Amino acid sequence: MNLYEHTIVARQDVSPSQLKQLTEKYAKIVEKNDGDIVKTENWGLLNLAYIIKKNKKGNYVHFKIKGSGKIIKELEKNESIDSNLLRYMTVKVKKFDLETNYFEKKEEFEKKKNNKS
What we know:
Layout (H helix, E strand, L loop, with lengths): L1 E10 L4 H17 L3 E17 L2 E13 L1 H12 L4 E9 L12 H11 L1
Antiparallel strand pairs: 1-3, 1-4, 2-3
């Protein structure tokens, strides 16, 4: 089984319910193709490095997927025709980093750090 980190960037004007539907849609595609989603992270609305299709921001959703390469092929085929998505990217990794939350608020990070001390 291969390990993949897959990120999608949805348009900035997508509602929270639509974003949840997108997440569920792509999770079902992974499960339908005998894959396993280890973790799903909603990174929220972030600034884009450059304007894409008249959008300055995008809603980021990150999946950690365990499965075969055909899952990624099927995911990307569906994502390429989805008008709510601006970009998507898949990276094959050797192991998952499940502890670190890179988009956690600074205050929450400080609280966790102080609680461990």
